Amino acid sequence: MLHDLRYGAGDLAEAVRASRRPRPRPVRRAVAVHSLPRHHWDKTVAHWAAEQERRARQRLRERVGTVLRLVNTPDGTLDLAAAEAVDVPPARHRHSGVWMA
Questions:
Q1: 29: three-class secondary structure by DSSP
Q2: pLDDT tens digit string along 65-83?
């Protein structure tokens, strides 16, 4: 159980009426945990994160390859306007995969 100090709307209004600072009330927080894979050193999260990272790298390589094919024309000139047509999102890092599990 966690305890936080929070202000309620009523507490703030009462403090304004009484011309004083608001007093926070302790709020008890409870969290229901349904699975503990990271707590028990289960490797499924690491495998899932590695798979997500691998897929992100594959998508990045594919889209950069598309940009290179569009930009590098056979006659040797660069078509920079064609590069704007391809959306290359930023690569997701392993940290995201682990924490989003």
A1: strand
A2: 888 877 777 777 777 777 7
